[in-house]
Amino acid sequence: MSSRKLSVFEAFSLSFGGQAPFTSIITFGTIGLQLGGSFLTIATIVGTILVLMNGLVIYRLSLRYSQHGGYFTYAFYSLTERLGLVTGWLFLLYAFTYGGTLLAGSIYIITSYLKINADLITFLVLLFSAFLVIRGLDVSVKYAEFISIAEIVAIVISSVVLLLETKPSFNFTIPANPFLVILYAIGMPIGYGNLNPISEDIKNAKKIVGIITVVVILLGGLLSALLFYASALYGTDLIEILLNKVGFVFPYLIFSALNGGILGGIAYIIAMSRILHAMSLRNFMPSIISSLKYNRPFNAEAISLIIYTVALFFLIHFVGLYTTFLVLGGLTVLSYLIISLSANLSLFRIALKKIRKRKMEITLATTSTILSLIILVYSMQENTPIINYIFFAWIIAGFIYAEVLEIAGSNGKNDED
Questions:
Q1: How confident is the model at residue 34 (pLDDT cuts 50, 70, 90)?
Q2: How far apart (Å, rounded) are the C-alpha atoms in residues 123 and 310?
């Protein structure tokens, strides 16, 4: 693996940029504002707190594990080999769907207003993403540093301008279905999961991965809440509000949203590749995937890139941008909740070994598990059946794959690095 390690700021930029807060705002937030109006501000704060609970679990686990694999590694060593495999399998779904949701959503918003051919811009964006991934982590991180700052600036400028404008009084209303609004609000801060799979690429990973995770959740959630509060003063059509009230920088906002979608995809392609690499090292994937080239897991990166690019392009082409966004968005929340449950159980089992000294960790893991289960059940109730069918099919496929590996005798736990 490369001796070049990411600094604190580089790791933050990749994680925060991978969360793509401004892009998330104009995708998840556009629907959330239409459903909840002014309540979306409260929903975003509540959603951020709920996500923060799971983020704190990652903080505790990251103090113990610094190798590639993130959620997969936590489950593999703390729970069982099979649960590790299934967790890694589900993370692959989460990585593809979150990155794909951001890209499809940002392209949908942009093409709706600029009247650009969706297939053409999708192809160009995916081509640019592939170029950055192939060039390597260093180039992707430089891009992330620039775009993450651009997204923060976009949110701050929009919020300040809207708050300084002459405005009507703020009318707080509770929508008919407040929990659905919270569900969309949760879709924004859950993008922090791209960092812990690449821990081995980060300096002092045990010390900083967890801290960055918490900072990214809080910063992304609070900035989102700020913009929603400012926007709700003018109505529920977020894009129209930005176009009419912040029109002088609207091209910059479009630029930030599109590049945020691109960066979200890149960050999760990289995270996906590290999961594949870690699973391959433990004989859960073909050994060729773990081979290093150019002093990096190039094969894993290439496979992740191909899967992401081909699958997303054909989805957008055949089912359309909006449907792709809705389906992938629903799958993102479900897969995120399951891998979070796996992380919660990992921390719980570790803490049980020294229960008297780790009561806070047990409380944290238990609380996070209960909250995640409640949100999971509600999410499934709100999803269209096809989303749930796809999700359960993916889980079943993961267990079948685990059975096949066990029968073939090809799985086994290697020594921890």
A1: confident
A2: 10
- Which distant-in-sequence residues (6+ apart) come within 8 Å of 346 by Cβ? 61, 74, 75, 78, 79
Domain boundaries, given as residue ranges, for the chain = 8-408
∠ Cα 18 334 399 (to 5°): 110
Residue 167: φ, ψ to 5°: -140, 155
Q: Which residues contact 393 (CB under 8 A, 6 or more apart)?
A: none
How would DSSP label each residue in 268-319?
Answer: HHHHHHHHHHHHHHTTSS-GGGG--BTTB-HHHHHHHHHHHHHHHHHHHHHH
Q: How far is CA 259 from the centre of its chain?
A: 16
Token pair 């995708």 in the structure block, residue: 27
Are 261 and 255 in contact by the 8 Å Cβ rule? The answer is: no
Distant-in-sequence, close-in-space partners of 306: CB < 8 Å, separation ≥ 6: none
Q: DSSP letter at 413? A: P
How far, in Å, CA of 107 to CA of 250, rounded?
15
Task: Determine the residue type at 385.
Answer: P
At 190-202, the pLDDT tens digits run: 888 899 999 888 9
Measured CA to CA in angstroms, residue 150 lies from 18, 34, 253, 376 at distances of 13, 26, 9, 33
Fold type of domain 8-408: Amino acid/polyamine transporter I (1.20.1740)
Residue 275 in contact with residue 72, Cβ under 8 Å?
yes
pLDDT tier for residue 3 given thresholds of 50, 70 and 90: low
**In DSSP terms, which residues pair with 296 in a beta bridge?**
293
- Nearest to residue 129, comparing CAs of 150, 114, 116, 147? 147
Q: Which residue has the tokens 């405005």?
A: 167
Torsion 289-64-190-9 (CA) sign: negative
> What count of residues does the chain have?
417
347/247 Cα distance (integer angstroms):
48
Find the range with the poorest average confidence among 88-97, 123-132, 140-149, 291-300. Answer: 291-300
Give me the torsion for CA of 49, 55, 56, 61, rounded to 10°. Answer: 170
pLDDT for 122-146, tens place per residue? 999 999 999 999 998 989 999 999 9
